[in-house]
């Protein structure tokens, strides 16, 4: 996808490094971000920006551009190098910074890079601030919207190595984590950080928790050993490592380490939906937390079932971390996340965090072993409600978004008339409560694709309805095929 357009959304911007993401694009968007932060009311305290990146090879170049722009606005910059995206989010609140920038393209392949922007509250920019940022960046391309300050007024840049150690330390100081019980398990864990930012912090966290760690693709060099999205078809090497080393579980994270996916002792992926489910089960069922739980429209109903079991409300939002984060703040949720392996724990910070997910899952397993010694990860998953979810996608090519939206409107009318339960606001979700299946159809925020996600009591039923809607889409959008 070397000709992919620049993607701008509530999840930040992404494009092909050196093409749709280049020096001018980085400078324009970093400057626009700072202009947004300077719009009253402004935060109090030091004018500080936290800057981190994943391990992509274009990262150092783009980081240098970002540092120069940040300093030229009179901001100080704490440059923390290769770190998970949630480390930057945590640092923004920990150091009371005005904001944060992560140079990353998350799970996109090697040729891509991008920018994520964090507000002073440690969560991503709201949709209205994103819109202002993108408008300013576009205007700056033709008519300058700002000028650098005189060099004497520039801020300073302070580098901080191994910043992720502070992240790990803050996590391990959460008072409800049963650290000694986890350490007593002496788990053998295989990890695949896909040569991204998560390798060193994940390995160090597990070792601190008493685990024997077998690593593949550990070095954060940006040369991803396989397609970096942590979905089953990309986890073959980790599965083999679990089997070859008699691992008790496997953990895969994406290049910026905000998503965590688990494999069982047989090398089988649990399904990324079950990361959040296990974390919610620990917080509600073991810790005894009570309050709302938040997830997005594309996430499994297993989390709904767990929340209902403990008398907690489930709040559902549009897809996108910022949407979940905003709702978590509004309703004072005790935990939330997205069904892509993203767990959000406000006790630490409100952002998807693979390190948090790892700690909560190991906490649940250690508790289960108090009454069932030797319980495995596969058995732990089996103790939860069981659903099969299917996640499909197809490229839009040159199809304009308006055509996708028009077809979704046609489908909405048809299925609403049939008596199905309809949810809109982020594509179209159709729920058939009689047969127990649902399908969510939506344009991606981060790639020029349509996602088709469906869930049912059986895989065959979920696959049937995903295939049905994908074929409808393709006939409508690509009639010549």
Beta-strand fraction estimate: 15-25%
* Secondary structure: number of strands: 21
**Overall pLDDT:** 95
Low-pLDDT regions: none
Distance between the termini: 20 Å
Largest sheet, in brief, is:
7 strands, mixed
Helix content: 25-40%
Describe the protein.
With 481 residues, the protein is an alpha/beta fold. Helices cover 38% and strands 22% of the residues. It is built from 15 helices and 21 strands. The strands form four sheets. The chain has a seven-stranded mixed β-sheet, sandwiched between helices. The chain has a five-stranded mixed β-sheet with strand order 13-12-14-15-16. Helix 1 (23-37) packs across helix 2, helix 6 (179-185) packs across helix 12 (354-371) and helix 9 (273-286) packs across helix 12. The longest helix has 19 residues, at 459-477.
Question: How does the SSE layout of this entry go?
Answer:
Layout: E1 7-9, E2 12-16, H1 23-37, E3 48-53, H2 59-72, E4 76-82, H3 85-94, E5 99-103, E6 112-118, H4 127-140, E7 157-159, H5 164-172, H6 179-185, E8 188-192, H7 199-208, E9 212-215, H8 236-244, E10 249-253, E11 260-263, H9 273-286, E12 293-296, H10 302-309, E13 314-317, H11 321-331, E14 335-338, E15 342-345, E16 349-352, H12 354-371, H13 377-382, E17 388-395, H14 401-417, E18 421-424, E19 428-432, E20 437-443, E21 449-456, H15 459-477
Parallel strand pairs: 3-4, 3-5, 4-7, 8-9, 8-10, 12-13, 12-14
Antiparallel strand pairs: 1-2, 2-6, 5-6, 10-11, 14-15, 15-16, 17-21, 18-19, 19-20, 20-21
Helix pairs in contact: 1-2, 1-4, 6-12, 7-12, 9-10, 9-12
